[in-house]
UniProtKB/TrEMBL annotation:
This is Uncharacterized protein. The chain crosses the membrane at residues 16-38, 50-72, 84-107. Keywords: Membrane, Transmembrane, Transmembrane helix.
Amino acid sequence: MPTPLAPPVMKRADDVFFTTLSVIMLAFVVVGFAPSYFLRGAVFATLPSLLVHLHGAAFSSWIILFVVQSSLVATGNIRLHRKLGYAGAVLAALMVIFGITATIGALRRGAELPSFFTPPRFSSRTRSVSSSSARTLAWLFGSETIARCTSA
């Protein structure tokens, strides 16, 4: 007697769109940073400081996590997608910290930045952006955690 086949899984347009978009974004990041970072061997690339390496690692990890997360949803592995979401929250907080501190480090080294990033204007924005971003992330992560704990 033949074994019954599993019903075909219908692909949603969203699954294809977001997975494709994430792969395209990964390609842009790799191509954009290949000459200065990836092809130099990310660890051995001569960069101004360890902080810039940490910044590159965090932001590269974020885009890789985006590809993994969209692929997990597209294949229906929602449970693992949700578990990795906690790592994404931690990574997002690290990205805010490393992004701001790497920019401040670049300003201290005298980097040429666009006019809207002049030291006096940027430093006044940094305090408000970092504190509001930290509060928002804490609120979002905390409310999600509380919701999960109370529903379990």
